[in-house]
Amino acid sequence: MEGNNADVSGSSPTHFLERMRHPSASDLVKSIKSFIVSLSNNPPDPEKDSAAFQEFLAKMEGAFRAHSLWAGCSEEELESAGEGLEKYVITKLFPRVFASHPEDVERDDELFEKMTLVQQFIRPEMLDIQPAFRNESSWLLAQKELQKINMCKAPREKLVCILNCCKVINNLLLNASITSNEHPPGADEFLPVLIYVTLKVRY
Amino acid sequence: MATIGNNNLNAKLVLLGDMGAGKSSLVLRFVKGQFLEFQESTIGAAFFSQTLAVNDATVKFEIWDTAGQERYHSLAPMYYRGAAAAIIVYDITSTESFTRAKKWVQELQKQGNPNMVMAFAGNKADLEEKRKVTAEEARLYAEENGLFFMETSAKTASNVNDIFYEIARRLPRAQPQNPAGMVLVDRPADRSQSAACCS
Q1: Does position B130 have pLDDT exceeding 70, yes or no?
Q2: Optimal mutation site among B75, B193, B194, B199, interface A, most CBs of chain A within 10 A
Q3: Might you name a Gene Ontology BP term for this protein (chain A) (predicted)?
Q4: Who has the most CB within 10 Å: A1, A65, B16, B182?
């Protein structure tokens, strides 16, 4: 199963950093550093910061495209450079952009409290998960994938954690349908398990 | 929403209907050509894509299967938002599923995209001896509501491809461009997962 999991990072981030070490990249490095400093100097504002970050990514993508370092590169390589940049910047800005705004923190706390309560009494049958598809111990595998979300910083990596969790659930449901001679699983089976797994994870 | 580029159309299609009406089986039959088969797909149970060639264009359907349980009804708008087409599925052996299907049609007419192509599918047409909903009744309802109607069987494959082809044919050829989401490319993982994720 591991082998089938999506891996967004591949070799791109290291590759990106290597390219940035090239002398001709000094102007790019300067823009990246100045963006990080300029964002850090203003008070956090999730909406504004997000817009500024998107704008910066788009601008840099244009700069990569025009730069001699990426001359003759494929679209895929350019895209992975964009991913590398996003990961680098978000890692640097992480403490500022994630859960730094008081409103976000409050919302998070409220949700966490609610989920901790729900965790204590929720049962698969309450979510309409059919008996043939109930297997709490195997769902721990899916929970494990989702738990990794807190160790990842870049949005893309966080999404991959969710995607991998979904893949594990799908495979478990398929196996369950085969052993129990049930119809193949669809959204009727998948969504309740995803919700259950999400509620049960200890974040 | 259907988006156009040259002669290629991308269209989001959502399946709605009661639990057990056969939404997922219809998709599986269409995408994999099989009623029962061990298969692996991108996000598996809930999301598929399939490309069809129709006349002068190719239509790539992004197919969203939804959970039919009543308790998940409130999530439905997230699924049909931006959809270019919907298949509302009921089971011809269940009047209850027919009633639910009509409620879905009403909801889409009220809140969906007015240009949405809507198909009304009476599934499990192979179970003639257990039929509770007549084809005439459903056809009349569909006509009154501007839907096109077919009886399908995911089990025998009857009308399954046809319903998707008919949707593809009816899709408006020009739609506003949708903002692109994030594309997660499935790359072969050559490192262990934790290392790939958090290095």
Answers
A1: yes
A2: B193
A3: vesicle-mediated transport
A4: B16
Tell me, yes or no, if B65 comes closer than 8 A to chain A by beta carbon.
yes
Residues A46 and A113 in one domain: no
Domain of residue A154, CATH code: 1.20.1050.80
Q: For residue A66, what are its two tokens?
A: 């025009």
Which DSSP string corresponds to B106-151?
A: HHHHHHS-TT-EEEEEEE-TT-GGG--S-HHHHHHHHHHTT-EEEE
> Locate tokens 């959502």: which residue?
B14
- Residue B70 token pair: 């009543």
Partner-chain residue, chosen from A4, A9, A184, that has the shortest CB–CB distance to B24: A184
Same domain as A180, residue A146: yes
The tens digit of pLDDT for each residue in A108-128 reads 999 999 999 999 999 999 999
CB contact under 8 A, A7 and B187: yes
Tell me the C-alpha distance between A53 and A35, whole Å. 9
- Give tens-digit pLDDT for A50-69: 899 999 999 999 999 999 99
ipTM of the complex: 0.78
Q: What is the CATH number of domain B7-170?
A: 3.40.50.300
The boundaries of the domain holding residue A125 are 102-200
Q: Assess whether A77 and A108 both reside in one domain.
A: no
Using the beta-carbon criterion (under 8 Å), do A166 and B23 form an inter-chain contact? no
What the block records as the tokens of B136 is 């005439």
Q: Are A198 and A147 in contact (CB under 8 A)?
A: no
CB atoms A155 and B182 under 8 Å: yes
pLDDT tens readout for residues B165-186: 999 999 987 554 454 555 665 5
Q: Which residue, A48, A77, A97, sits at the end of a domain?
A: A97
Which of A82, A97, A112 marks a domain boundary? A97
pTM, two decimals, is 0.82
The verdict on A184 touching B (C-beta cutoff 8 Å) is yes
Asked if the structure places residue A72 within a domain, the reply is: yes
